[in-house]
């Protein structure tokens, strides 16, 4: 019996010496703080449904945030009150109307609305707009539509102007087309000319990149097997969508052929 009491006393002394260690005491204090702290909490973030938008337009997004103090999680303390949401935008996009501050003392769903300006040259396709609050984040998907048009560079009056053509020699012209839009496009060129006139292009298939001019050389020859040419004739080059065949743009020239046999 005396031996058992002596062993218990020595054991208690050992626990006391263990608690006297600085590192052990700090760990014990941290454990007590966790056990005695107030309720932990978490957030539930809900992103809006995917939206489609044209480049150059404004976009409105509504995120839903719900604070839950019943679930145990690490993060911000709702007792601190208001928290500033963080918004991450694609490169070149602008936050026009920022969301309001979030009051975490209210445990009902809250809607955070923001407005974003999409640049006119935003690439076509899906983009993400992220909302972050502490360690929680969610992303909304935005689909930017593909838009574009083809423009012929140079003098716009050349379609109506008439050029003299020495029909015994080739007639040539250098032109350029440019794609104005937010997505590259594969095109092919198609020539139109009256019977007895041959039209050759430097290249028929092109891959147009927005804002980059594509130069095209056009040469017109008289078919040696043809008869008399009219006093005025028109030739044209159509730019077609390589996938759908849809005509996107046209350039025309009016030629007045002559040679030594003509007055």
Structure summarized in a few sentences:
With 263 residues, the chain is mainly beta. The protein has 2 helices and 19 strands. The protein starts with a helix and ends in a 5-residue tail after the last strand.
Structure notes:
There is one protein chain. The protein is mainly β and 263 residues long. It has two helices and 19 strands. The chain has helices at 2-19, 22-36, and strands at residues 42-46, 51-53, 58-68, 82-83, 86-88, 94-97, 102-103, 110-117, 125-133, 136-144, 148-152, 162-166, 171-181, 185-192, 197-201, 205-208, 214-222, 233-241, 247-258. The strands form five sheets. The chain has a five-stranded mixed sheet with strand order 12-19-18-14-16, with no helix packed on it. It has a four-stranded antiparallel sheet with strand order 1-3-8-6, with no helix packed on it. β9 (125-133) and β10 form a beta hairpin. It starts with a helix and ends in a 5-residue tail after the last strand. Mean pLDDT is 80; it is low at 1-16 and 27-38.
